[in-house]
Design brief:
Strand content: 5-15%
Radius of gyration: 26 Å
Number of helices: 19
Number of domains: 3
Helix content: 40-55%
CATH superfamily of the largest domain: HUPs
Low-confidence stretches: none
Distance between the termini: 65 Å
CATH class of the largest domain: Alpha Beta
Mean pLDDT: 86
Structural class: alpha/beta
Oligomer: single chain
RNA sequence: GGGGAGGUAUCCAAGAGGUCAAAGGAUGCUGACUGUAAAUCAGACGUGCGCCGCACUUCGUAGGUUCGACUCCUACCCUCCCCA
């Protein structure tokens, strides 16, 4: 019988593990594992921002998968470690965050994780959300050096990749000590929550093993860990960085529409892998989706499923539907059929201007509206653009460069949709 | 401190008294093609005007010479190079 690690491995989500037999230790159960078999695992989230990126999302999903396999997940927000700064994967010393910022960030992440995992107290393997500030800020420096520092040799710490890679460029004592704090976290959770497992991204592996070592030395008990891979797209680019824009999980940082679009824009070469990584669909379901996708790749069937699944998970179905409708309008749909809510969604995604309805009485020239909306910088340019056939009103090409818009042209809610070229949209509302 | 070169449109870069809104590239924009891709071909590209035309503004800044200045003169500002 295969366990949780096999599940991850089959989906391409296992990069490394601390022990060979981990798979047997964590069998997969329906919903809830019997108490004697229930295992607890934690993942730490660094509060460097008030939200998480889709890079962190892999770890959140890891916790979710863990919970779905009947075990208990703990999401640990680093309110304490965030004050120090994790050197893992960083090439430079980081600016310290203020305590206020860290607290604000912790709250943002807390809110997000609260939606993504099941914290229902009736569920025996309910998730926990903890903040290491609760214990890390209480320990005194001298105690820390005696109780934690004594168990780590400097050569051991220097050998860790997170430190080693920084020896040339410099690393402060503060960041150097980071792994001790994370080790302390693990021990704390091990003792207080019976948490035997920790996982994270591959760059966390060094910190994870430090914790296991610490638990073995101080408690003479065995803890375990594994790492999920860093996800790259087919071009070898880290996911969630489209043209240097980070894709966040919170709506206030990345709108639902942009989030949805990010997944829709997945390359064909990545669709199958991403379905394995970011959804809970079974292998058979994914194979079917891919088979269907390949019959008409231009339909983006696979991307649509991916975008729907992921957006539903993060933002909920109703918001996903709005984003979907907005996408539909912007990519070939008929705007005359669109509802007011769709335009409201669009208004925050594309250049949007409100104008006075009175202007339409005499009829308003398209070329004038082009300037008001910022489609073109001058009327002359607008007229040339129309001559070249690049201006569209309600997805219909404007042919007459002196064409006037009247109140009869308005769509639901007084909206009017313009387009320049193939995909630059502009929205006006006449009120 | 001494000597030299130069500042032109989004960027690079021609122009050396009138035919200059200013060659040629590149980027960006648009059209065709296409799967919300790349490549390719084509077009417009200072501003205004119901636009095969006319007017206005622009070649570092401010003055001047001239019928006429991106081009000549003066001063100033800035950049780069060489020598000390």
């Amino acid at each position: 019988m295969s366990g949780f690690l096999t599940l991850l491995k089959n989906r391409g989500l296992l990069a490394s593990q601390t022990h060979e037999h981990l798979d047997e230790l964590v069998p997969i159960f329906e919903q809830v594992a019997p108490p004697e078999h229930m295992k607890t695992a934690y993942v730490g989230f660094d509060p460097t921002a008030d939200s998480l990126t889709i890079g962190n999302f892999i770890q959140v999903l890891g916790l979710k998968r863990w919970q779905m396999a009947g075990h208990r997940p703990i999401a640990l927000v680093g309110g304490g470690t965030g004050l120090i700064g994790d050197p893992s994967g960083k090439t430079q010393e980081r600016q310290l965050l203020t305590k206020e910022t860290v607290e604000k960030n912790v709250e943002g992440i807390r809110e997000l994780l609260g939606r993504l995992l099941d914290f229902d107290e009736k569920r025996p393997n309910r998730a926990y959300l903890l903040n290491n500030a609760d214990w890390l800020t209480k320990i005194t420096f001298v105690d820390f050096l005696r109780d934690v520092g004594k168990y780590f040799t400097v050569p051991y710490m220097l050998a860790k990749e997170s430190v080693k890679s920084r020896l040339e460029t410099g690393i402060s004592f503060t960041e150097f000590s980071y792994m001790l704090l994370q080790a302390y976290d693990f021990k704390y959770l091990f003792e207080n929550y019976n948490c035997e497992f920790q996982f994270g991204a591959t760059d966390q592996f060094g910190n994870i093993t430090a914790g296991i070592e610490f638990i073995r030395k101080t408690l003479e008990k065995q803890a375990y860990g594994f790492a999920q891979p860093l996800i790259l797209d087919a071009n070898g680019v880290k996911i969630g960085k489209s043209q240097s824009i980070t894709i966040w999980l919170s709506e206030h940082k990345t709108t639902v529409y942009k989030f949805y679009q990010y997944w829709i824009n997945t390359q064909d070469a990545d669709v199958e892998r991403f379905l394995f990584y970011f959804t809970f669909l079974s292998e058979n379901e994914i194979k079917e989706i891919i088979a269907k996708h390949q019959q008409n790749p231009e339909q983006r069937y696979g991307q649509k499923i991916l975008a729907e699944e992921v957006t539903d998970m993060v933002h909920g179905k109703s918001k996903r539907t709005l984003a979907e409708n907005a996408s539909h309008i912007l990519f070939g749909g008929d705007p005359t059929q669109a509802k007011v809510e769709t335009f409201q969604t669009l208004a925050s995604e594309i250049p949007f201007v409100q104008m006075d309805k009175q202007l339409l009485h005499e009829g308003l020239k398209v070329s004038d509206i082009c300037v008001s909306l910022g489609i073109t910088t001058s009327k002359g340019e607008a007229q040339r653009a129309i001559e070249q056939g690049s201006i569209y009103l309600k997805n219909q090409r404007v042919i007459d460069k002196f064409m006037k818009v009247t109140a009869n042209d308005l769509l639901e809610g007084g909206y009017l949709l313009f387009r320049k070229g193939t995909k630059q949209y502009y929205l006006a509302q006449f009120i």
